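tokens incoming
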């Protein structure tokens, strides 16, 4: 099975990423995306524990800042 890749993001009015769109046209909210990444379904992101001890999504190849918004 081909892994999905994040291709676009959606931000809230505080400029935080709240949703991710993949190349298979699926939309994941932040929590769903974390689950999918941890379970190996999404290829170009990783989940890391931040200094605040919370889990955060980080890109592994293309910067989220350079991705289009949807």
């Amino acid at each position: 099975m081909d892994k999905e890749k994040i291709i676009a993001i959606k931000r809230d009015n505080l400029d935080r990423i709240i949703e991710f769109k993949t190349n298979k046209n699926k939309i994941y909210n932040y929590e769903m995306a974390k689950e999918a990444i941890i379970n190996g379904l999404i290829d170009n992101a990783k989940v890391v524990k931040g200094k605040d001890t919370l889990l955060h999504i980080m890109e592994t190849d293309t910067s989220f800042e350079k991705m289009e918004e949807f």
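note: DSSP finds one helix and six strands in the chain.
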